[in-house]
Specification:
There is one protein chain. The chain contains 15 helices and 14 strands. By secondary structure, it is α/β, with parallel strands linked by helices. It has 2 domains: 255 residues, Aspartate Aminotransferase, domain 2, CATH 3.40.640; 120 residues, Alpha-Beta Complex (Aspartate Aminotransferase, domain 1), CATH 3.90.1150. The strands form 3 sheets. Strands 1-9-8-5-4-2-3 form a 7-stranded mixed β-sheet, sandwiched between helices. Strands 10-12-14-13 form a 4-stranded antiparallel β-sheet. The chain has a 3-stranded antiparallel β-sheet with strand order 7-6-11. Helix 6 links the parallel strand 4 and strand 5. Helix 2 runs parallel beside helix 10 and helix 11 runs parallel beside helix 15. The longest helix is centred in the last third of the chain and has 20 residues.
């Protein structure tokens, strides 16, 4: 069987052995030195000034938007545009924090929102304060145009880059177009820390606020200058600072176990990205040659480090045939993430105005995906190609 997730880690045996040694030798396993080291290493690879490590990609989203509210950059009731084809916990934190999500349709041949679909959304809902765009499955549409449009319209841009680590367009890594970007290190993603997530930004005020949001709203883990500034502002001395809580926060800290694994996996970043890119190009070329399927248009992308590879059928009868073909061949497949989010029960319960998402509807009803693991063997790739041909 070709599974979505072949292993827990890349280079799994070596990682597990080193992890066992680390656990046996460590005096403390709560968030500490390894987490800080992982944050610095990840920032360097992603080419961002700061990274905040948390316990999941979903928590990364939660911490990001709570921090924006704490800083007053967003306020309760503000409208936040979100990709229609996304994951549930890109939208749930917005609802939970009193923000109002509004869905932006995708392009079928990229699975992602574009400048065109964003402009169409603004015609329906002109009061959008921020855009939280998903780089779905590791792809993008015209991110540079979206960034320019958002800047011109004073719309804050944020990226969900959980499925796109290492992908780039216009010479720039995905995850570096917005003010901040979120990542997931759940098992099966590009880098696995078993559970884990990250928020990256060049905005140091936002970074400090997210760091406080991560752990109760206290200042223990922010840098010395920011720490002294906030203590002076609130007239808090070093003794009472230990239990002073400056604003709303959570406890979504990772452990040093997660940080240690992250540091081990970080050394394989380039190798993982290269293999995923080559796998995708090989398989997408076969999809392009199949008249029954719609391929991903990625000619503007430099590197396509895809989380998974989509099969988008031109009609439902073709989808039914390919679904059976893949399942009978022992290939683990999934619906296209959460599909059109407006169809999800929780969304319908809380949100009444969702706009139009004709393309997301089409993708929802005409596609599935299979895993693009860096560990795919030549035989497995040949098998996948035979199913597409």
């Amino acid at each position: 069987m070709i599974k979505l997730q072949k292993f827990t880690f890349y280079n799994e045996d070596k990682t597990k052995r080193e992890l066992c040694d680390f656990i046996m030798e460590s005096s403390s396993l709560s968030m500490g030195v390894e987490c800080k080291k992982f944050e610095k290493g990840f920032s360097l690879k992603q080419n961002r000034k700061s990274s905040v490590f948390v316990n999941s990609g979903s928590s990364a989203n939660l911490v990001l938007f709570q921090a924006l509210l704490n800083l007053g950059r967003l306020k309760m009731g503000d409208m936040v545009a979100v990709s229609a084809l996304t994951w549930a916990t890109n939208i749930m934190p917005l609802i939970q924090l009193g923000l109002k999500p509004f869905l932006v349709d995708c392009e079928v041949n990229s699975l992602n929102a574009s400048a065109k679909t964003l402009k169409e959304a603004l015609l329906i809902q002109p009061n959008i304060k921020a855009l939280f765009i998903t780089n779905t499955l590791g792809f993008c549409s015209d991110l540079a145009n979206i960034e320019e449009f958002c800047n011109n319209k004073n719309i804050m841009l944020f990226e969900d880059n959980c499925e796109a680590l290492g992908s780039s367009t216009n010479g720039k890594l995905l995850g570096n177009f917005g003010i901040a970007s979120t990542f997931s290190f759940f098992v099966g993603h590009h880098l696995s820390t078993i559970e884990g997530g990250m928020v990256c930004t060049d905005d140091m005020e936002l970074s400090s606020q997210m760091t406080m949001c991560r752990a109760h709203g206290w200042d223990r883990n922010i840098d010395d200058n920011a720490q002294q500034k906030i203590r002076r502002e609130y007239k808090v001395d070093d003794f009472y600072s230990k239990y002073t809580f400056y604003d709303l926060g959570f406890n979504v800290r990772p452990t040093d176990i997660n940080g240690f694994i992250g540091n081990l996996q970080l050394q394989y970043w380039d190798e993982i990205v290269d293999k995923r890119h080559k796998n995708f190009i090989t398989i997408n070329n076969a999809i392009e040659a199949n008249d029954n399927l719609i391929s991903i248009e990625c000619n503007k992308m430099d590197i396509v480090s895809s989380f998974a590879i989509p099969i988008i059928a031109k009609d439902k009868s073709i989808l039914k045939r390919y679904t059976k073909l893949f399942m009978d061949a022992g290939v683990e497949i999934r619906p296209m993430i959460a599909g059109n989010m407006s169809k999800q029960p929780f969304y319908r319960k809380y949100i009444s105005n969702s706009g139009l998402q004709e393309n997301a509807d089409f993708v929802h009803n005409h596609s599935f995906y299979f895993g693009n693991n860096a560990d795919l063997s030549t035989d497995e790739i040949d098998k996948l190609l035979s199913l597409i041909d």
